[in-house]
Amino acid sequence: MLAGGVGGALVAFLAVGLLGVRGYVGNFLSFRGYPPPSEPAYVTKAGTQVQLSVRSPALGGRSQQVYVYLPPGYDAQSTRRYPVLYLLHGTPGRPLAWLETVRMGIIDDSDAALHEGQPLILVMPFGSTGTFTDTEWVDGVGRGNGWQTFVTRDLVHYVDAHYRTIASGAGRAIGGLSEGGYGAIDMALRHPGEFSVVESWSGYEQPAKLHSIYGTKLQLLAHNDPMTMLPRVAPALRRLHTYFWFYSGTRDRFRFQNQAFAGELTRLHVRRTFFETPGGHDWSLWRHFAPRGFLAAADGLRA
Known about the structure:
The protein is of the alpha/beta class. The protein contains 9 helices and 8 strands.
């Protein structure tokens, strides 16, 4: 009986331990080691998180997960229209990191409470078929891989049809971190006029030479190379007053690409803000500069 009791206790102990490990890992994946987001005491009214499933012809008719964050007061003000900030995650990544780790919803609520910048609708799509699946946010080879068209056409049309948005490029911003930053720049250059503010948080401008995405002969690479596209679309960007806001950490290997891109924007007289900051390519940097990124979009979009 004693041996059986000890064995049962050991099994129970291991089970509890495994549950604890699973909980810790789950918490880390959600919050990256940071505490769960919480509203500051001065915020009396919070926004609303909505989970959607958006069907996309560009993805072969599949339904794709999207999160929307509606700012405080959205439901109470039935006629007011809002600018929209589209946020693209990195790889590996998922859209909820924008709310759980970067805390963009908290920033939206805080700025509204403090009357700092205008409130924004945040739209955060899932840009792949799995957390570790790489798509580069482009229209890749093969059927059903139109990830860029999913965002710039299918998702934008859905959001404008279902929410009180300012349904024009003047009311839209797009941003992303790491690979999402590259995706944001690529989409803005391929679709000038679709977004008037473009943000890249530790992104890059030289697409990775991935045959699975750009083709066996990399035939789609030049069509998605920001440094190649920029001189061609610069006149449209100037006419539309498109604004680029981006940064790199001083230990980030992509900083040289960003320096070169910033130089080209300056040479071509395209509006931009670029800065380098101590740090690497990590969540601490993205969390720290998230409020500035939010305000860059809020201040640059039409109310």
